[in-house]
Amino acid sequence: MNKAEFVDRIAARTGDRAAAKEVVDVAIDEIQRAVVKGEKVSFAGFGVFEKRQRAARMARNPRTGDAVKVKKTVVPAFRPGTGFKELVTGKRKATKAAPASKKAAPAKKAAAKKTTAKKTAAKKTARAASTATRSTATSRVAAKKTAAKKTVAKKASTAKKAVRKTAAKPAAKKTAAKKATKRGRS
């Protein structure tokens, strides 16, 4: 899942894509700012985003095998929480999140259904268009193949006629010569 898909899923639950995008952008920005400052950002059950210091050390160049000095560095890190780990390993089942407020839930569900219906209709239209495009392209290819076959057949029949005519000319000359010789004899 990428950021756009993540925003779409949140928008499906809340009913407002623009607000969902804004919330995701602000949340990511605030997490990054806090980690840069050296603060830990902790979400209970999910995990901790933090800044880690890596000490200077000696490493090996894998190509040559020589020892190489690596400077100390600072890297961002994520440490998953126990609840998240249990979900991933299958020890705990995921629960369905409840809507933000019970009063706004029916309106949000209706809005989500409308957007889902629009997306479904758009997908069906896109599929139909792509199928039509494919079938049109297929029929064009078939038409080209048929035209090519007809052209080849015409050329072949023309060549056969030419062969017949050239073969018939000497035979005609021979029969004419035979008739002439018979006339001269009688």
TrEMBL record:
GO terms for biological process: chromosome condensation. Residues 96-109, 127-141 have a biased composition (Low complexity). One of its GO terms (molecular function) is structural constituent of chromatin. The keyword Transmembrane does not apply. Residues 110-126, 142-186 have a biased composition (Basic residues). Keywords: DNA condensation, DNA-binding. This is HU family DNA-binding protein.
